[in-house]
Amino acid sequence: MKKYIPILSLLFTPFVTQAQQTITGLALPESAVAYKGGYFVSDIGVQLDAVAKDGDGAISYINGGKLEALRYFDDTLNAPKGLDIIGNILYVADIDHLKGYNITTRKKVFDLNLEGKAVLLNDLSRVDDSSLVVTDSFKDHALMVNVHTGKWSVLKGEMKVPNGIVYNAHNDEVYVCSMGPDLDGTGKLFAKKLHDDNAAFEPLEGSPAGVLDGIVLLDDHRLLVSDWIKIKDPATGNLFVYDLDKKQYKTITTERAPADIALDTRKHSLLVPQLLDNRLAIIPLKKLGL
């Protein structure tokens, strides 16, 4: 029978799915990004004030399933939000500044001062080796920023409280999810051809509505979007899977206050900052049926 043991082991060993992890001890986590084997998380700080220049914000680092550093970079941050990485530079939106930090040296290497021009820089997404797109939630628009020159421009099209943003290089589309005027839950999905100067952000047909926060590309045909449902005392949240071809979506119920979600493509997991509970949930995509 010995020669059959490997086969029998395969037959009777259950398929093991990576378990969900929850990282605690954060301080109002808003955004996350995967980097090699770990995760960077932006923490708004002790007080939930998206535009307070109180200096209590930070970027945490999670490694090996543990909170390794609550403040990875020794620099003053106020209410940091969206994160993305170009090369070994971590970029973060912090109210009216867009900052970049060398991950290796932990030093600040970029600081675009938009005081008086931006109000609430929120999410950001890498376009190429020199460019990012960034939402300004209180200006109702998105920006294109060259991180080499510091030059920036406003992209055409108004959206009411735009939040999450993601760029798809395969079709040159930028996708944005909004929270709706006064965060009233009527936020929608928008899209625009990035390098078409005549194109403006337009609502996507069949879009879900909600207090939409984060957005990622599952593939070239599907978006995954997080929804608070409501801002005050939410009991649960939603994840919407929107099909760009079929113009329809399905809903996955999740825990409350899902903020700026991100993908860990290495581990096939979704990173969900649970802002009001000071946690980061790391959820296997299989568990979500994705």
UniProtKB/TrEMBL annotation:
Keywords tagged on the record: Signal
Source taxon at top rank: Bacteria
Signal sequence region: 1-19
Tagged with keyword Signal: yes
Keyword set includes Signal: yes
InterPro entries recorded: 6-blade_b-propeller_TolB-like
Protein's name according to its UniProt entry: ATP-binding protein
Organism (species): Chitinophaga hostae
Upper classification of the organism: Bacteria, Pseudomonadati, Bacteroidota, Chitinophagia, Chitinophagales
